[in-house]
Write a structure and sequence with these properties.
Blueprint lengths: L15 H9 L1 E3 L9 H8 L5 H9 L3 E3 L3 E3 L19 H4 L20 E7 L4 E5 L10 E5 L4 E5 L3 H9 L20 E4 H9 L8
Parallel strand pairs: 1-8
Antiparallel strand pairs: 2-3, 2-8, 3-4, 4-5, 5-6, 6-7
Helix pairs in contact: 1-3, 1-5
Length: about 210
C-alpha cells in the first residue's frame, strides 16, 4: 500500500518528536508514564508498535490532553477489555459505507480494516494509524472527524501529529473541537489521577 507523499518514518533510535513534545506538553499529577509489557502487546496485536508511541506511553501513559484528546495504551492479553486500549474499528463501522469516506486524494487508497485506533477526542473524533506497512514506524495517522464525516491522512507518526497539533502547525485544524488551537500550555493528566480526583470530589484539572 503506498504511503502519502512526503511521509518520513520516525527514527527508531531517537524519536525526536517525543523530546519536542515533552517541551510543549506538561504531565500533571503524580502519575506520568506506564510500564507496558511490549512483547505481550505484540502477541495480542500480531505486530510491534511504533517507536514514538512506545516512547509516548513511557513518558506520559494512558490519559488525556486537557480533557479533549484521550490516548489509549495497548492490551497485553486477549481477554483485556477494549475500552481505552488500542483496537480496530468495530464490525458496525467496518460495514458502514458512511464511515468509509476519505478526504481527497485518499479515497480508495486505504482500507478500514487496516486502521488501529490509538486515541479519540471529546468531540467523538477517532485517531488511528494506517497499519498496511509492515514497518510500524512508517504508519501514518488517519483522523475521522465528526465535523467533516471523513478520514484525513497525516503523513507522520503519532508523536509528530500531536506535536504539530499542540503547536498549531497544521495548515487546517485536524479536529472537530478547536479548544486546543490557541492553548499556550497544554497539560496531560493520567487516567489514574483523573479518576482519583473525581472520586475525591475534586476537579483534577484544577490541581
Amino acid at each position: 500500500m503506498p504511503q502519502p507523499e512526503g511521509y518520513s518514518s520516525v527514527s527508531p533510535d531517537q524519536p525526536a518528536a517525543i523530546a519536542a513534545l515533552a517541551e510543549v506538553l506538561s504531565c500533571i499529577g503524580p502519575t506520568c508514564g506506564d510500564d507496558i509489557d511490549w512483547s505481550a502487546a505484540q502477541a495480542v496485536y500480531g505486530t510491534s508498535l511504533p517507536t514514538d508511541y512506545r516512547a509516548f506511553v513511557a513518558a506520559f501513559g494512558r490519559g488525556g490532553i486537557e480533557g479533549m484528546i484521550y490516548i489509549h495504551t495497548p492490551a497485553v492479553s486477549s481477554t483485556e477489555p477494549q475500552m481505552f486500549t488500542l483496537s480496530g474499528l468495530s464490525e458496525a463501522a467496518l460495514t458502514n459505507a458512511e464511515v468509509n469516506q476519505w478526504a481527497p486524494p485518499d479515497q480508495g487508497r486505504y482500507r478500514l480494516e487496516d486502521l488501529l485506533i490509538w486515541g479519540g477526542t471529546a468531540a467523538a473524533d477517532t485517531l488511528c494509524w494506517i497499519t498496511a506497512d509492515p514497518d510500524p514506524d512508517r504508519w501514518p495517522v488517519a483522523v475521522y472527524t465528526h465535523l467533516d464525516l471523513e478520514w484525513t491522512v497525516y503523513p507522520c507518526g503519532m508523536a509528530e501529529f500531536l506535536l504539530k497539533l499542540l503547536r498549531n502547525e497544521w495548515p487546517r485544524w485536524p479536529l472537530s473541537d478547536a479548544g486546543l488551537e490557541d492553548d499556550p500550555d497544554p497539560r496531560f493528566l493520567h487516567d489514574k489521577d483523573e479518576a482519583a480526583g473525581y472520586e475525591a470530589g475534586l476537579d483534577p484539572w484544577e490541581y
